[in-house]
Amino acid sequence: MTEIRHTIPEFNEPDGTPYRPRLRQSVEQALHTFVDQISGSGESRARRDELCRALGRGEAYEGRSLDALQAAYRTGVQVAWRRVAEVGRRHGLSSTVMSQLADALFAYIDELVSLSVEGFTEARSRTADERAALHRRLLRVILERPRSPRAAVVRTAEEAGWRVPSEVTLVALPAQARCVRAALEDDVLADLGGPEPHLLVPGPLDAARHSALMAALPERRGAAGLAVPLDEAADSLRWARRTLALVDAGIIEDEGLTPAEDHLLELWLLSDGALLDQVARRRLAVLARMSATQRLRLTETLGAWLETQGNAVETAKRLQVHPQTVRYRLRQINEAFGDQLADPESRFALEVVLRAGRLRDKSPSLR
């Protein structure tokens, strides 16, 4: 293992790199099966065979040739033969036995290489549709609720040849959105066939990722959730879909690929419309007996007054009315709400309700 990592840069990575099986696991299994083979054991070779094929698949999925893997096999057999020769000398084994061991060892390595070539060829021969299907399955495993075990995600990622990232950003697309799949970067997972198409982008949505996505989306519309740990991918998608819904409702400005990051307050305030109605009904109950026109004037004035921290002059500027008009309305508000305006918790609740109400007023469908 040390020699392989030292001489072959592609293998100089921590154990557990997702796109190929762990180096220690592969080496141990290969050695174990070789000992079984020369001792005449009938142990199954299925695990070894799958690991070797997976190594080949990993190289194909990463877009590399088999050169590095074949070099690793050559390094491995050289190290193994040096150790075998050392043991042979120590125990005085005959040249006949050593020759048999050499033949067995080098034939064994040829067998391992053949298995990896088989996995490599298999992966290369998969059509784009087959790979897309693997990516869709992986995406569903990642987004599944309750959460899939981490081991299941890693196993499915290995099958799909996908490197598991520490962070992801989910992107929601409009129904029946067109997407040029060939223009998507290889590590972007896509599910475009359902009523709510979506993408998973490894890492945050930086400028380069944003440009690449825009090139793949002819309509140039969608919404991006927050960058989150992989285990929280479903939350990112939920926020992305909610952002897209608010864009469609006209509450949030359409930015092409609208980031949820820029609209967290709106997402929070409008996250539960029914509950917002209940809070508003209770907090604004004292205005229920007034006319619609009077309620509108007082709530506008109260909202502006709260946002300007009780400054009547600033409130008048916001509403474009005379300060005396504001003071008159504030007397009515004080009569209606009484001690609530002196209580910080009540003032906060009133400001939240009024802000959310103004947001909803932008779209009839959310009233």
Give the distance, in angstroms, between the N- and C-terminal Cα atoms: 65 Å
Tell me the overall shape. elongated
Q: How does the helix and strand content classify structurally?
A: alpha+beta
> Which strand order do you get reading across the main beta sheet?
2-3-1-4-5
Residue ranges: pLDDT <50 for 5 or more in a row? none
Structure, described:
It comes from Actinomadura viridis. The mean pLDDT is 88. Helices cover 60% and strands 7% of the residues. Strand 4 (222-229), helix 9 (233-248) and strand 5 (257-259) form a beta-alpha-beta unit. Strands 2-3-1-4-5 form a five-stranded mixed β-sheet. It has three domains: 2-125, no CATH class; 166-269, no CATH class; 273-366, no CATH class. It contains 15 helices and five strands. By secondary structure, it is of the alpha+beta class.
Itemize the secondary structure elements and their pairings.
Elements: H1 2-7, H2 23-38, H3 46-61, H4 67-91, H5 95-125, H6 128-143, H7 150-160, E1 167-172, E2 189-191, E3 198-202, H8 207-216, E4 222-229, H9 233-248, E5 257-259, H10 264-269, H11 273-283, H12 292-307, H13 312-319, H14 323-337, H15 344-361
Pfam families: HTH_30, PucR-like_N
Domain PucR-like N-terminal: 2-143
Organism: Actinomadura viridis
Give short descriptive properties of this protein.
367 residues; alpha+beta; 3 domains; 5-stranded mixed sheet; 7% strand; elongated; CdaR-like_regulators
